[in-house]
Amino acid sequence: MTMDIKNNLTPTHPRTTGDDRSVAENAGVRGGGPEGGRDPGGSGDRVTLSNTANQLNDLARSASEQPAVDTQRVEQIRDSIKQGTYEINAERIADRLIAMERVR
């Protein structure tokens, strides 16, 4: 399926960024390089992210850089199990299971 998209739309009201500012007012937020936020290809289209979106992107990037597993903690638990010193707190496990069920 092929779709032909033409850039001949004229907005009927000003576009906003979601934080009560127009797109033009928010042009200084990230991406406003030497082209002034414009597409260097010449189409004149641009997208500007709100501060909240930029913060979410930063958090996602930071989280993705963290290891998925705390290997040091895994080694501590593994050593405790091998030495027979690992203690299971059944009451704590039960409390957390109940708390998880309450959230649902």
Describe this structure in words.
There is one protein chain. The protein has 3 helices and no strands. The protein is mostly helical and 104 residues long. It folds into 2 domains: 16-66, no CATH class; 69-104, no CATH class. The protein is elongated. The two termini are 42 Å apart. 2% of the residues are buried.
What labels would you give this structure?
104 residues; mainly alpha; 2 domains; 3 helices; 40% helix; 0% strand
Mind sketching the topology for me?
Elements: H1 51-65, H2 71-83, H3 90-103
- CA gyration radius, whole angstroms: 26 Å
Count of discrete domains: 2
Tally the helices.
3
Classification by helices and strands: mainly alpha
Number of strands: 0
- Please mark out the parts with pLDDT under 50 across 5 or more consecutive residues, or reply none: 29-33
Fraction of residues in H or I helices: 40-55%
How much strand?
under 5%
